[in-house]
Amino acid sequence: MDKPVTTLFMLMSLDGKISTGATDGFDMDRDLPRIPGVRESLHQYYDAEQHTDLWSLNTGRVMAKIGTNTSEIPEKTPVSFAILDNSHLTEHGVH
């Protein structure tokens, strides 16, 4: 019997990433390295992030925040994205 190929998504927060707050003014990559005790272990998080499944579950809000609506369309990567959105992405951002 063949086993199905499955993917487990670990939801880290409601907006699709680890966050230090509910507004766009807070940014995990900028804020956590400034917290003593956390910054010393961040390399473990980034290492795990680089070696996990090639799927990314995210929201349109996060994608818009990182510039998806206005940046050039990047080269294809091996990572597949599942994006949940109803208002943040433009047609360009979807492509």
Structural notes for this entry:
- This protein is an alpha+beta fold and 95 residues long.
- The chain contains four helices and two strands, in the order ααβαβα.
- The chain has one domain (28-94).
- Strands 1-2 form a two-stranded parallel sheet.
- α3 (60-65) links the parallel β1 (55-59) and β2.
- The longest helix has 9 residues, at 42-50.
The helical percent reads 10-25%
N- to C-terminal distance: 38 Å
Helix segment tally: 4
Number of domains: 1
Shape: extended
- Helical/strand content category: alpha+beta
Strand order of the largest sheet: 1-2
Short description:
The protein is of the alpha+beta class.
Write the layout of secondary structure elements.
Elements: H1 28-31, H2 42-50, E1 55-59, H3 60-65, E2 80-84, H4 91-94
Parallel strand pairs: 1-2
Keywords:
95 residues, alpha+beta, 11% strand
